[in-house]
């Protein structure tokens, strides 16, 4: 797999196109199927050496063909094999039919399968291209396997998961391991599919890289390959003013902590200067807690406008603890020509008329980053959120284009999207990121990258990834303060590699 980029993702349609192009280029499609089946068999023998029986469940298409190849290889290795088929295998055509004929052994109807102790189930019923609800008999079989607690090795994707969206189509196997081919699919990384795949192994079955590159879209796994070339490196000629001035807006006296978390995270992530813009009634509370972060009183839109005219300010974060309402809307609209991360209360302030926000930032290069969680996304984009035909990446992309903004659609499977069509799925965020204040830290990190001159998509993707790295350093019992404090270490670890 060394010749295929590890971050590559292909949709099921793109993978099908790669298969077709391989055949058109002279690579026999059955050769690909054989290599896929061999990879499944090798993985089964490696992971489950003590299996008493491999129960290979074969479907009515090419995924079933992979299963027949795997069954033949396992039998030749001396393993105890029983093959069960969904439908009449004599009806199989093409490569799958050929794989069935070469198997040559007994095949029982799927309805006869009963899991027993010592079994390992090889799920070759349906692959990543499944787009319809599973038949009732397969749903019942999945339940019986789950009750029996026997291990499952999935071929391509656990049957029942939509490879495009990661959503179960009725029911789905929960696999201990999934073997996929050439590249992962979105369903391997998006929830709940991600939690049902177990360990994911990507097998190179011989499709040339030129074909993989030709069919790939603009979806990838988030990682340094997307944004590392844009990272500002600290050198001998570095100066705080060259690294940008980030402004974080604070809420009232009783709600100042969120802004300070954002500010510390921004400072740790490399912004040369960070100022908390505070209402007068919160100045004392903020001053008592800030040292390296500066403080300025900004109560009104007039005071903000005066500051914008007379100071060199690079980027802004508004939302954490700020408060919901017209005051937030006025400040955001005053910043319509500046790089801005809009989070939390800032997002919710536009729920009644999101078009006001979108229209304000519609001109010029994209300079707005929106960081909604599920509920906030639904407030800004109710029709997109409600469209169950769309995957999470597709929803994020539609939202990015409507808002003329980079979208950070947060969650355990955070998706970052740009109006230009680029979409990245983040995978390094540990579950303990779901803690109070975590989003405030993320907003500050993204703001720091904007202040240092990164474009919005790269700033958002880098912020999300390094946020996950910092959480990994902090460990399961972290607080948001721990997370903010380790943002700098996460940044140093990454920059040391480039």
Automatic annotation (TrEMBL):
Positions with a binding annotation for (6S)-NADPHX: 62-66, 127-133, 156, 258, 321, 373, 440
Amino acids binding K(+): 63, 123, 159
Keyword Cell membrane: no
Keywords: ATP-binding, Isomerase, Lyase, Metal-binding, Multifunctional enzyme, NAD, NADP, Nucleotide-binding, Potassium
Residues annotated as domain YjeF C-terminal: 223-494
GO annotation (BP), single: nicotinamide nucleotide metabolic process
Binding site for AMP: 410-414, 439
Origin: domain of life: Bacteria
Domain YjeF N-terminal, chain residue ranges per copy: 15-213
Known role: Bifunctional enzyme that catalyzes the epimerization of the S- and R-forms of NAD(P)HX and the dehydration of the S-form of NAD(P)HX at the expense of ADP, which is converted to AMP. This allows the repair of both epimers of NAD(P)HX, a damaged form of NAD(P)H that is a result of enzymatic or heat-dependent hydration. Catalyzes the dehydration of the S-form of NAD(P)HX at the expense of ADP, which is converted to AMP. Together with NAD(P)HX epimerase, which catalyzes the epimerization of the S- and R-forms, the enzyme allows the repair of both epimers of NAD(P)HX, a damaged form of NAD(P)H that is a result of enzymatic or heat-dependent hydration.
Entry protein name: Bifunctional NAD(P)H-hydrate repair enzyme
Origin species: Rhizobium wenxiniae
């Amino acid at each position: 797999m060394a010749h295929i980029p590890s971050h590559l993702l292909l949709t099921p349609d793109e993978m099908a196109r790669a298969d077709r192009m391989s055949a058109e280029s002279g690579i026999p499609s059955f050769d690909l199927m054989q290599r896929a089946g061999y990879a499944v068999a090798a993985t089964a023998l490696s992971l489950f050496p003590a299996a008493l029986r491999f129960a290979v469940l074969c479907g009515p298409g090419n995924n079933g063909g992979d299963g027949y190849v795997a069954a033949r290889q396992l039998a030749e290795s001396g393993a105890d094999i029983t093959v069960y088929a969904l439908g009449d295998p004599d009806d199989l055509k093409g490569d799958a039919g050929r794989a069935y004929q070469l198997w040559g052994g007994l095949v029982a109807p799927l309805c006869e399968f009963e899991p027993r102790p010592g079994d390992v189930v090889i799920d070759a019923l349906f692959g990543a291209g499944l787009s319809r609800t599973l038949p009732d008999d397969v749903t019942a079989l999945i339940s019986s396997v789950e009750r029996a607690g026997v291990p499952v090795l999935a071929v391509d994707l656990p049957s029942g998961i939509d490879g495009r969206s990661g959503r179960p189509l009725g029911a789905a196997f929960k696999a201990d391991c999934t073997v996929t081919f050439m590249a992962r699919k979105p369903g391997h990384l998006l929830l709940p599919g991600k939690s049902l795949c177990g360990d994911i192994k990507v097998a190179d079955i011989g499709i040339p890289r030129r074909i993989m590159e030709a069919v790939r879209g603009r979806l990838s796994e988030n990682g340094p390959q997307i944004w590392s070339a844009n990272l500002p490196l600290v050198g001998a000629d570095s100066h705080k003013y060259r690294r940008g001035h980030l402004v974080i807006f604070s809420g009232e006296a009783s709600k100042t902590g969120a802004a300070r978390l954002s500010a510390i995270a921004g400072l740790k992530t490399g912004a040369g200067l960070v100022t908390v813009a505070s209402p007068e009634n919160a100045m004392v509370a903020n001053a008592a807690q800030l040292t390296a972060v500066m403080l300025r009183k900004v109560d009104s839109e007039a005071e903000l406008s005066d500051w914008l005219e007379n100071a060199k300010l690079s980027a802004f974060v508004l939302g954490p603890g700020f408060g919901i309402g017209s005051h937030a809307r006025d400040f955001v609209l005053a910043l319509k020509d500046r790089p801005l991360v809009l989070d939390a209360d800032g997002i919710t302030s536009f729920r009644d008329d999101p078009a006001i926000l979108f229209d304000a930032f519609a001109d010029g290069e994209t300079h707005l980053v929106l960081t909604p969680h599920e509920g906030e996304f639904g407030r800004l984009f109710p029709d997109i959120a409600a469209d169950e035909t769309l995957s999470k990446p597709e929803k994020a992309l539609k939202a990015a284009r409507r808002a003329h903004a980079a979208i950070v659609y947060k969650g355990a499977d955070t998706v970052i999207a740009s109006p230009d069509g680029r979409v990245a799925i983040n995978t390094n965020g540990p579950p303990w990121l779901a803690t109070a204040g975590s989003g405030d830290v993320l907003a500050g990190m993204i703001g720091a990258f904007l202040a240092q001159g990164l474009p919005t998509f790269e700033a958002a993707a880098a912020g999300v990834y390094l946020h996950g790295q910092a959480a990994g350093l902090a460990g399961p019992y972290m607080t948001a303060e721990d997370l903010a404090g380790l943002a700098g270490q996460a940044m140093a670890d990454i920059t040391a590699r480039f």
